[in-house]
Amino acid sequence: MRLADKVTLITGAGSGIGRSTALRFAKEGAKVVVVDLSDEHGRATVDAIRENGGDATFIFADVTKWDDATEMAREAVARYGRIDVLFNNAGISGVGAVHETSEELWDKVVDVNLKGVFLVSKAVLPDMMARKQGNIINMSSCIAEIGLMRRAVYSATKGAVLALTKSMQVDYAPYNIRVNALLPGTILTPFVEDYLKNSYDDPDAAINTIKQRQLSGELGRPENVAEAALFLASDESKFVMGSPLYVDGGVVFGKMA
Ligand code: NAP
Hints:
Layout: E1 7-11, H1 16-27, E2 31-36, H2 39-51, E3 55-60, H3 66-80, E4 85-88, H4 103-131, E5 134-139, H5 152-172, E6 177-184, H6 190-199, H7 203-212, H8 222-233, E7 244-247
Parallel strand pairs: 1-2, 1-4, 2-3, 4-5, 5-6, 6-7
Helix pairs in contact: 1-2, 1-8, 3-4, 4-5
The protein binds NADP nicotinamide-adenine-dinucleotide phosphate (NAP).
NADP nicotinamide-adenine-dinucleotide phosphate binds next to helix 1, helix 4 and helix 6.
């Protein structure tokens, strides 16, 4: 029980990495606040946790809305008394080089992937600061470190999240709050399936190309990222602060001969 009695809040926990992490955290004894845009998906995550004897509750929130973020934080604290771990996971894809990216797409991706991290953190931090205890995990991506084709706005947001993580760590270390970032490689989730469909004529061929750039030879699975999130959420990582944790099958630091 590596998260016994910890209250954890995960945004975008109705799908993919967020859902997998919610299930993993619950298995380790955490109480899980499942936040999502979709009632149906969020409640399905909660049901799956409860079926296994875990404790979870669903709160609807759009991370791009300040009112939703504050209400979400208020409801979570009313239900469980505090938030020990915040996982800013919700995110969307955005395909295109700069000249192909509409202003509308730019604003939408920045709103969810970057402003969402800001708003939810801003809503949750006062409780953590008052208790002088907290742990925040921000979802970046290995794309913050490497160039990939036609991912202009997405990579801009994930690079900014990594920079924000370091800045937050400096500001909140005096409050005994750790802030770290996860940098996954390509993980097979609905998000990646959408990206493949929107970007390539032949998604299966694209998967093979992506596999080849990974030293692992395989795409990652949501569970791989959930295990890394568990490490950051637990006290096992108590000396890890302001760090990027790569979960990328060797894409960033590996190089094929
Ligand atoms: P996913 O399966 O699409 O899950 C994302 C979740 O976020 C969905 O449940 C979605 O809800 C929710 N969401 C989207 N916009 C939201 C908003 N405004 N407010 C609240 N919730 C919102 O994606 P995933 O692959 O698990 O990705 C999770 C995170 O990991 C993202 O930040 C992504 O950028 C990052 N990441 C993913 C990969 C990868 O290869 N999969 C790699 C690196 C980083 P709806 O379904 O209802 O829209």
